[in-house]
Every structure is written in structure tokens, then in C-alpha cells.
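INTERNAL TRANSFER SHEET
From: sequence group
To: structure group
Subject: Tetratricopeptide repeat protein

Please process the attached sequence and return the structure record in the designated field. Keep the field labels unchanged so the import script can parse them.
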Amino acid sequence: MQPSDARYGLTGRVVRLPGGTVRVLTALRDLADGSRHLWGDAHDGTVEQLPQLQDRIAHQVVRATRQSIDAAEMDSARRKPPGSLRAHDLVLRALPFILAADPTSARAALGPLEQAMGLDPDDPRPVALASWCRAQLLLYDGTAHPDAERVLARQLADRAAALDPCGDPLVLTARSGGAIAANRCDQVDALLARAGAVDPGFGWVWERKGWLRAIHGEPEAALACFRRAMQLKGPRAPIANCLAGIGKAHFVAGRFEEAARWMNRALSENPAAVWLNRVLAPCYLAFGEQQSAARSLDLLRRAYPGITLARVEAALPGIGDSRCDDTQGRLLEGLTALGLPA
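Return from structure group:
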């Protein structure tokens, strides 16, 4: 029997099948929404295998339950009427836009986040996430005022830190964006390490760790982080930025055809992430696809009129850090060779 105030219910049962085989059925339901089915699975094994089967099921249930509840909470917040939204609901509404990783989505997220800050000024989550959105506008060349955006990102990150003495993993991860905007790679490392220590199962932490490793020129470590992030994110979470990160890691490793393949997968998931052509165009050039490289650069210039090498360099994270400069320098050399003006 479920407690009367429970929002979600997890059930399981064992069915005996012919030949000494058993099937374990698990299901998660949203009890507050008409017992709506959120997730379920079935595992087969023999009676003798039950201890090992139990361990495998427990591991999967923990991961799948979190993924399903996160998706259900965001869906519930999306369907609430505007007049009933709390700060928590507004944060949930903003999250899919924040994780999409493109300037248009970052701007769309800022509206509900600013509203959430007005409703609950002491909540560090909307403040930290707004810092990350400002950092995205800077990193993806989505602002005409990069210096002002950099200052805003840093100020919001500092404010979130003051509001979050205990270290919420979401806040710590989002604050890393303000540190990236300030080109403080060591601080990004520290924030993500702390977030991962508090919650090793938080997929966004692993995604951000992957990007940091790629920026630092550690492609294999980056790929391991992105694979972990993809496992933890769940089937309904935005994955374009993970796919792009895998592409960036292959680019760093010099596997340019593989890098282009993953970048194109990312663009298929999120066509608004046109900024990825900053990497895709040099990829094509590196393995001799001159026409594809020119087409990719043309898409970038159409989306960002007046873009120059100086603007790209200003937007790249880690410039000025010796661990990062070699990695980003290869990208700038490719764009130079393709004729992007200085």
C-alpha cells in the first residue's frame, strides 16, 4: 500500500515461467496524475540467478527512477497554469532550454529564471542557472555585448555561491559557467569536482566535466565523461550538447571524420546550435572536404553576421590558460584557412 501523500509509486513482482525461469517486472507510476505509467522494465533469469538479478535490477531502478521522476517533474511544471507557478516550477520550466545549449534557448530560459528570482530571492538555483545562461550567450557568440555579459555571469555566480553554503550539485554545476566566462579553468575543475562528490549520479556534472577535459586537451577522459553523462541523462533529456562534446573530443584527438559525424548528429538533435559550425568547418577542412567546409562556414556567417576570428576567439573558453590554448588554436587555424576575416 502506498502512503496517502506519496507522489510516485514503485512496484515490482516476480512471475514464475516454465523451465525454472523467473521474470521480475518493475514499474514506476505518477500517483498524483491518475497513476500514469512513467517507466517499466522486465528482467528474466533462473531461480539460482536471483541474487545477481536483484543487484542488476536495483542498480537500474535507481537510475531509471531518477530519470523518470525528473522528466515527470518538468512535464508537470510545463502544464501548470501561469498563475500557480512557484519558483521551483519556473526553474523546472527553464531547465530544458538551459540544457539545449544554444543562444536562443538560453535567452528563453532567462525569462522564467528572472521570474523565479523575483518570487524567491533566497533560492540559489535560478541565480546560478541565470549565470550559466549568461555564460552561454558569451560562449556561443549570442550577445552584442560580451564584456557586459561576462560581468553579469560572474556576478550571478558569486551571488549564487553566497546563497548556497551547503553546495547543491545543480548550483555548483551552473556556477561553473560563470567561472568559464571568467576563464577560470581551475575554479571550474573545483566546482565540478565538488558537485560530482555530492551527487555522482548527476548527468549534467559529467557533461560539463567532459567539455572541460576536451578543452584541456584530454580527449579520452572527455569521451568517458560524455558516455557516463549519456547513461545518466535518460531518454527524454536533451543530448545535443553531449553529442557535440563527443565531436569536440574527437576533434582534439585528431579524428576529424569522426568529429564531423558527431557534430552533425548534434545539429540534427538541435538545429539551433549553429555555433557548432565553428568546429565542424575546420573538421571538414582537415580531412579534405573543402566544399563541405565552405558550406559549414557559410552557415555560421549567415547565423552570425559580421562574425570574425576575434569574436570567435573572445568566445572560446580557456584562452589564456596554457592547457587550453593548444586545443583552441587548432580550431582558429582552420577558420583562418577557410577565410574567416580577422
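Handover comment: DSSP finds 15 helices and three strands in the chain. The first strand starts at residue 8 and ends at 17.
Transfer complete.
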